[in-house]
């Protein structure tokens, strides 16, 4: 039950003070009271009263529940969902969920009401037609953690049996509001509440995949910030041998990208319209800005989860379409983490990594975006051996802290069928089947650095990153280091052994 003393209540007679007393005269039935008729209808017949939303949210949400493990209720709920869509097409009706989502402890679907007329028509209809199902009717008022919790509890109305909600989500929202003014390093400490409030937490993605998701330090001088996956496609042309692909879909989108497999397959490059060596470089090369809470303003990363069986799960965190971290979990506990660096990388025990709270830290190299476990210089002439100086040196430092899971899609990978499925049906999938390259082809006779091409061909997509690897590393031999070597720029002086 809601604590009635948690809230204050304005007088219902506010604005009606000082009027003449009402009459006690009865109507002909001898029971009901006669009211003075003044010929003016309440505005509530036309618009919802304040503070109910009159905008895109709608004044009321109605959540209609069914127990997902009860086949009779599932059948009835699906039929009711279809009936509402057919009889009330003007209402906003959402996905039919077959599992709990958000604060709702069992499966449900949602309907939004925008006018008193819609409320007056639909709610009486639902009272008669809801069958064995329960329905929550809650108002939408000003956004905010306190308001959302109150709307779902003290202001809520139930049809049928009340189903206790999981109010933890609103507690997390309150925590987020309290710390919004805190420094970024504190705002992202431990598990990000924003990730809990995002679509990822509303799916069946294991909680620990978010609890231990890496945080990424972008280099302070790196002009190339995380780029939105869909936004990137707005600026590319499909090419094979430096020529546009005939018959390529236009525009290229995440939903049709895989159609290029039939027009060039692995030879297709998603080349920038201006060219990789454009001078000056177009502004879109710089990606999207990062907010104070570490969130990219576009979806610029993905999480792919591979359940290997026996309680062992690999969670891949892909950044910028190419480089990634992978964490191997055993029964929800992180064991080791892989840092990809160009065509190689390094593996560490989870205990050896730098962390904020439970979340391991990755450092993204200036301009190349290879990910490292420490800040400083990283020569990658010898794969997997990161010397602080050399011929080809990546540089990392603590510039901008980025939280990739705040702008991410999440998928599951099945090794037996080699298929990738979304954790939310709204996440695009077809683009993950693209066999080509995310970027320009290597420039013929292009500039070189120490005998190696300055511009190399664009990287392949996530499905080519050995998602069903046996080891933490994508290849053998695989050395999982229980320590890390710190540079002078590191924020800590000594590693923690596993």
UniProtKB/TrEMBL annotation:
Domain of life: Eukaryota
Biased composition (Basic and acidic residues): 23-32
Disordered as annotated region, ranges: 1-34
PANTHER family reported in the protein's UniProt record: AFR070WP
Protein name per its UniProtKB record: Uncharacterized protein
């Amino acid at each position: 039950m809601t604590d009635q003393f948690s809230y204050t209540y304005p007088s219902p007679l506010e604005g009606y003070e000082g009027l003449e007393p009402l009459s006690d005269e009865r109507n002909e039935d001898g029971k009901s009271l006669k009211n003075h008729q003044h010929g003016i209808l309440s505005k509530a017949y036309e618009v919802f009263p304040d503070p109910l939303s009159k905008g895109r949210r709608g004044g009321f949400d109605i959540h209609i529940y069914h127990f997902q493990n009860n086949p009779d209720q599932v059948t009835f709920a699906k039929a009711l969902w279809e009936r509402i869509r057919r009889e009330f097409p003007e209402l906003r009706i959402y996905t039919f969920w077959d599992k709990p989502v958000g604060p709702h402890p069992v499966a449900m679907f949602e309907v939004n009401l925008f006018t008193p007329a819609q409320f007056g028509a639909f709610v009486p209809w639902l009272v008669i037609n809801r069958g064995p199902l329960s329905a929550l009717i809650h108002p939408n008022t000003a956004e905010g953690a306190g308001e959302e919790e109150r709307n779902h509890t003290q202001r809520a109305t139930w049809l049928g049996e009340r189903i206790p909600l999981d109010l933890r989500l609103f507690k997390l929202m309150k925590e987020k509001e309290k710390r919004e003014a805190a420094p970024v390093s504190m705002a992202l400490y431990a598990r990000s509440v924003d990730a809990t409030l995002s679509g990822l937490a509303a799916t069946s993605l294991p909680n620990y995949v978010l609890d231990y998701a890496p945080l990424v330090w972008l280099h302070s001088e790196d002009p190339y910030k995380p780029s939105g996956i869909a936004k990137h496609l707005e600026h590319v042309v499909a090419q094979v041998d430096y020529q546009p692909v005939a018959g390529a879909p236009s525009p290229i989108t995440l939903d049709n990208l895989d159609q290029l497999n039939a027009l060039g397959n692995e030879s297709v490059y998603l080349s920038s319209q201006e060219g990789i060596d454009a001078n000056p470089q177009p502004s879109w090369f710089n990606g999207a800005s990062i907010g104070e809470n570490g969130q990219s303003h576009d979806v610029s990363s993905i999480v792919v989860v591979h359940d290997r069986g026996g309680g062992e799960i690999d969670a891949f965190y892909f950044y910028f379409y190419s480089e990634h971290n992978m964490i191997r979990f055993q029964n929800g506990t992180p064991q080791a983490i892989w840092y990809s660096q160009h065509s190689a990388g390094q593996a560490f025990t989870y205990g050896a990594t730098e962390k904020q709270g439970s979340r391991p830290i990755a450092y993204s190299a200036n301009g190349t975006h290879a990910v490292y476990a420490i800040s400083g210089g990283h020569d990658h002439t010898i794969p997997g051996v990161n010397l602080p100086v050399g011929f080809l040196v990546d540089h990392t430092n603590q510039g901008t802290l980025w939280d990739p899971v705040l702008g991410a899609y999440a998928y599951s990978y099945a090794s037996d069928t080699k298929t990738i499925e979304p954790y939310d049906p709204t996440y695009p999938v077809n683009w993950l089947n693209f066999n080509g390259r995310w970027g320009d082809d290597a420039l013929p006779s292009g500039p070189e650095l120490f005998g190696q091409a300055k511009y190399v061909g664009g990287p392949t997509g996530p499905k080519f990153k050995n998602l069903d690897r046996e080891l933490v590393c994508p290849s053998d031999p695989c050395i999982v280091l229980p320590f890390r070597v710190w540079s002078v720029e590191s924020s800590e002086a000594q590693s923690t052994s596993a």
